[in-house]
Amino acid sequence: MRSLEEYLGAIGEKYSLTSFTLATADGLLIGSTRPGGEDEAARYSYLYTQGRLQDETGAELLGIPYRGETVVGIARPSEHLSAELMSALEQDTRDALRHWA
Q1: Lowest CB count within 10 Å: 25, 45, 60, 77, which one?
Q2: Phi and psi dihedrals of 7, rounded to 5?
Q3: What kind and span of H or E run contains 74?
């Protein structure tokens, strides 16, 4: 993989995600497979800090501890991900962060 976005794309394919975005807890975009990821990063980071882990559009949010901060993952799966798949997605995301961020 040559970039974080390519790696996120590979993660998206693995978990059948229509898009996958990573953001800081305060809403800054880290990387995304979706055009307009900046707006999504800001909106969903706020929802995550409010304790929401899903929204009406089907986005599923996960918090990934990384270097003393929380990275918010915004996954848009084609169907709901089980707790086991969310755990695996979190681990793959940590691996991506270690390599690219």
Answers
A1: 25
A2: -65, -45
A3: strand 69-77
Whole-angstrom Cα distance, residue 101 to residue 84? 25
pLDDT digits (tens, 9 = 90+) for 51-92: 998 888 889 999 999 999 999 999 999 998 999 999 999 999
Give the tokens for residue 12: 């998206």
- Using only C-alpha atoms, what is the Rg of the chain? 12
Q: Taking the mean position of all CA atoms in its chain, how far away is CA 97?
A: 11
62 beta partners: 73
Q: Give the Cβ contact number of residue 51 at 10 Å.
A: 7
* C-alpha span between 101 and 94 (Å, rounded): 10
Q: Are strands 17-24 and 60-66 parallel, antiparallel or unpaired?
A: unpaired
How many angstroms separate the Cα of 85 from the Cα of each of 15, 98, 100?
8, 20, 22
